[in-house]
Amino acid sequence: MLLDASDSLILFIDFQEKLFPKITGYKEILNCSLKIIEVAKVLNIPIILSEQYPKGLGNTVKSIKSKLRESNFKFFEKTTFSCLANIEIRNYLKEQEKKQIIVCGIETHICVLQTVNDLLKIGKKVFIINEAVGSRHEESKKIGINRNKKIGATLINFEMLLFELIRDSKHQKFKELSSLVK
After folding, report:
1. In order of start, what are the domains of the chain with their CATH numbers?
2. Which tens digits make up the pLDDT trace of 23-33?
């Protein structure tokens, strides 16, 4: 199954100041995430941003928060590891009526895994962007990715995301968006 821009929503999980710099490869994750936000903005794909216990882990990193202000996003605080255990997030997802959920965030083996599991349980098709998820330890990311795939998530990369969403070099936004892979 390929991604469909009209049936997709992007979920950014817990890109927070105190934890994010401890994530292996966080600079690459940040760069990819900023490009994903640009794609969402150009294609008008809704975004959910979650923060896990901001009192302890801080707020979303400034570059992500500032880029998100240019897009169609909704912010939620949570204390649960799964985003869907938060009733406000669950209700917002229901209102959006999107079947495909694109997931980015930290940590792959904790909040991402538990959220993906719950998304799959309610019948969503879940796509995890490999360059936009991470954990403090590389081994934890690998284990998290493997488990997410075993429970039914699809692992993709940024270029797959971009070119599946636009599908055609004649797409009116092709030129603008294809510059993100150069």
Report:
1. 8-72+81-181 (3.40.50.850)
2. 999 999 999 99
